[in-house]
Design brief:
Distance between the termini: 41 Å
CATH class of the largest domain: Mainly Alpha
Structural class: alpha+beta
Number of strands: 4
Strand content: 5-15%
CATH topology of the largest domain: Four Helix Bundle (Hemerythrin (Met), subunit A)
Oligomer: single chain
Shape: globular
CATH architecture of the largest domain: Up-down Bundle
Number of helices: 9
Strand order of the largest sheet: 3-2-1-4
Radius of gyration: 19 Å
Length: about 250
């Protein structure tokens, strides 16, 4: 492994020291098999919320065989829950061959990231807009199916319905950013700016997204009777976005 390591002041200060410890322990465990560790997403933004936001990591290994993966289990377990790590593991060749399969994830990684150690595996990596549109449609339809199923099972439990919206909101935000990317629009960093951009570019009514964003920040409390109204508006907006993507022509 390349011993030259890059630390970035952009990583949220609440997790910076622990993240460095994680990288050091992972490096000591893997040795030459560790090619790169990249942090991306909200941990590099002012919107990071300790204990609520995931810390997204791309870990690139020379070998991803069972023996190599078993070796890093203790380190991942030790830091995984503490830091809310969301880890994806690739070989360098596997990552480059996956740009057509996971274009949304590649774009999400490339939009804002910091190399914590090793090489930059995202350099020169590109995705095709046709692949991006196809995955966006698939992910939106999957989200709709999940929301319908979960609501059908849990509609009488107001707190569960609230959590359902909150848990899926991060996924929807990533898909909204992808829609802007697909249109060739500038993709804002903050949640509020993304919501405003969707309203301006697509003409969607986004009040429901603004309310869920406030709910997520703990700045809004919903009476029980409002929970079902909000969910109805939420799933209707996701369906509207799904229809737009379905009809979108490159």
């Amino acid at each position: 492994m390349n011993e030259e390591q890059t630390r970035t002041p952009e990583v949220d200060s609440a997790i910076r020291a622990q993240l460095e410890q994680f990288v050091n322990e992972l490096s000591a465990t893997c040795g030459e098999n560790l090619l790169s560790v990249v942090v991306y997403g909200s941990a590099l933004t002012p919107e990071f919320m300790l204990g609520r936001s995931d810390v997204n990591l791309l870990i690139v290994l020379e070998r991803t065989d069972a023996v190599s993966l078993r070796r890093i289990e203790p380190v991942l377990k030790r830091y995984g829950r503490r830091l809310r790590l969301n880890v994806v593991l690739f070989t360098l060749d596997g990552l480059r061959r996956s740009a057509d399969t996971f274009p949304i994830e590649i774009v999400q990684m490339s939009r804002r990231y910091a190399v914590l150690c090793g090489c930059n595996p995202l350099e020169g990596l590109t995705v095709q807009r046709t692949d991006l549109r196809m995955q966006l449609e698939r992910e939106l339809k999957t989200l709709i199916v999940q929301l319908r199923r979960n609501y059908a099972y849990e509609a009488s439990r107001h707190k569960v319905v609230c959590e359902m919206m909150l848990r899926s909101f991060g996924t929807l935000l990533a898909l909204l950013r992808t829609a802007l990317e697909l249109l060739g629009e500038e993709v804002p960093q903050s949640t509020d700016d993304v919501i405003d951009a969707i309203e301006q570019v697509l003409g969607f009514k986004v009040d429901v997204l603004k309310q869920i964003a406030q709910l997520r920040r703990g700045k809004l409390r919903l009476p029980k009777e409002r929970v079902h109204e909000l969910f109805s508006e939420y799933i209707a907006l996701v369906e509207q976005l799904m229809q737009w993507v379905d009809e979108f022509k490159l």
